[in-house]
Amino acid sequence: MAKPYDVGPGDQVHPGNPVTVDRYTTGARINHWITAASLVLLALSGLSLFHPSLFFLTGLFGGGETTRAIHPWIGVVLFFGFLGLFLRFWRANLWKGEDGTWMRRLSDVLRGHEENLPEVGKYNAGQKMVFWLMSVLIITLICSGLVLWDQYFADYTTVGQKRAAVLIHALAAVVIICVWIVHVYAAIWVRGTIRAMVKGSVTGGWAWRHHRKWLRELVTGKRDDKGTGAKPAE
Amino acid sequence: MYPPLPNPSVQPSALQFGPEDLQRRSASSVPAPPRQLTEVAKLIDVSKCIGCKACQVACLEWNDMREEVGVNRGVYDNPHDLTPATFTLMRFTEWENEETGNLEWLIRKDGCMHCADPGCLKACPAPGAIVQYTNGIVDFVHENCIGCGYCVKGCPFNIPRISKVDHKAYKCTLCSDRVAVGQGPACAKACPTQAIVFGPKEDMIKHANARIEDLKSRGFANAGLYDPPGVGGTHVMYVLHHADKPEIYADLPKDPKISPVVELWKGLTKYAGLTAIASFVGLGFLHHVVSGANKVSDEDERNAKKLTENRPGGS
């Protein structure tokens, strides 16, 4: 059977009461939590050097010097961690027709009026924006971060380039922390979401309510959008 | 001639200034200093410099540092740049004066300028790693330095260097340890032509003005003092024979100031960034309070069940 575009490997419906739907494989979850942990550690160590009132956070890492030394290495872990997530999830995060409609009805989203929203696949437009913003920002952060990694790369750039890099790094970091807050908040607000990344599965009701198109695809084993280059089922 | 620095007494002497005289401390605040020390300055008269590098040697010796034996790249600069051990460096420039047709050998002793508005201190994230005394000396406190290199980005003169050994930032201290016991900087002490003099900044300006007058009488119409106002003035000043074009002296900046990029980073970004982060957290709380949790209903579960039971043929 041809795979629908946004049904990931391992996504599967288990009939029962309630119905459960496998959303993330064990590999994807380990990959996610390594990335998540490094993002949190990077935010804490980065913020400690961003504002004097937060310098005390260097204590979590064994002092200012070790914070300075360890931060770039955690960045490397994040980069490769996110690269793994990117390779797993990019296809399901491609922008689709219904995503524009979803974004235009953001006020309905925020009010929880999901009956007014189009049916969406594995990810809604908000999740896709988080995904692509994270992708762009992590590339920005790793590139500007390498310019600032004096221990190994001090000699490759001019002072002017380092100044630009430090400003870009700080701005990108602020934005990514805000994106992260949206990501975490959405997971908390939409109940039943966190178990997707903890147990790997969600309830059928959750999938019906928030990702109905994905659920339909899983059930029928077919793409649910006609005329967008869907492959016929075998 | 400005009176040379006296030889030190052999008796131990009390410190003339200390931590209580700080007017600025990186990433932290200091109590208002109880007194204002006399502002000091080192005056480097480029027109008197013979390029002997005695100052460089004295600096290495006083600070107990060694340079690696380097390679000759066809210029007199040795080493080729400031390093974590070389706090001061003679930079040699061969400049053709188009007005007179003369080749002028310009020798500038490069090093920390001890800005009144120090970019390094502004950029530094480590509390107390960079300090400024009320006498104008800007000093690095290595036990507080974390080696991030932000001072390098903050400095408008490209002075601090990060050691590859202990990953800490180094630069000229204006011999704060010597000045604290009534001495002058080691470089000034060693200079054989009095091209480097040290004393109260006011006296240094007076001395410089006399030198400038003398230079003007010898045909250097644009002779002048380099005490750039863009960084609030400096506590290391130059007498230049061509003060109208400082850039000919191995790229001495004409109007140095802290880079607007650094100002933006350490100013608006710092506050706006934390405000943005706090607002997102606040908005999250507010939204949750107003609209409550987005819960899956029993009806959703029933619909899902219905859908799965009606699946055509299964997979």
Brief descriptors of the model:
heterodimer; A: mainly alpha; Fumarate Reductase Cytochrome B subunit; 3-stranded antiparallel sheet; 10 helices; 61% helix; B: 315 residues; 2 domains; 4-stranded mixed sheet; 8 helices; 28% helix
How does this model look, in words?
The complex is a heterodimer of chains A (234) and B (315). Chain A has 234 residues and is mainly α. Chain A has a domain at 26-89 and 124-186: Fumarate Reductase Cytochrome B subunit, CATH 1.20.950.20. Chain A contains 10 helices and 3 strands; from the N terminus they run ββααααααααβαα. A 4-stranded mixed β-sheet of chain B has the order 9-2-11-10. Chain B has a 3-stranded antiparallel β-sheet with strand order 1-5-6, with no helix packed on it. The longest helix of chain B has 32 residues, at 260-291. With 315 residues, chain B is α+β, with helices and mostly antiparallel strands. Chain B is built from 8 helices and 11 strands. Chains A and B meet through helix 2, helix 7, helix 9 and helix 10 of A and helix 3, helix 7 and helix 8 of B.
Helix and strand topology:
The complex is a heterodimer of chains A (234) and B (315).
Chain A (H helix, E strand, L loop, with lengths): L11 E3 L5 E3 L3 H23 L15 H26 L7 H8 L1 H6 L13 H24 L1 H4 L5 H31 L4 H5 L2 E3 H7 L1 H9 L14
Chain B lengths: L21 E4 L14 E6 L8 H9 L26 E9 L4 E9 L8 H5 L6 E4 L4 E3 L9 H5 L6 E2 L6 E2 L5 H4 L6 H5 L5 E5 H17 L6 E3 L9 E5 L19 H32 L6 H12 L6
Parallel strand pairs in B: 2-11
Antiparallel strand pairs in B: 1-5, 2-9, 3-4, 5-6, 7-8, 10-11
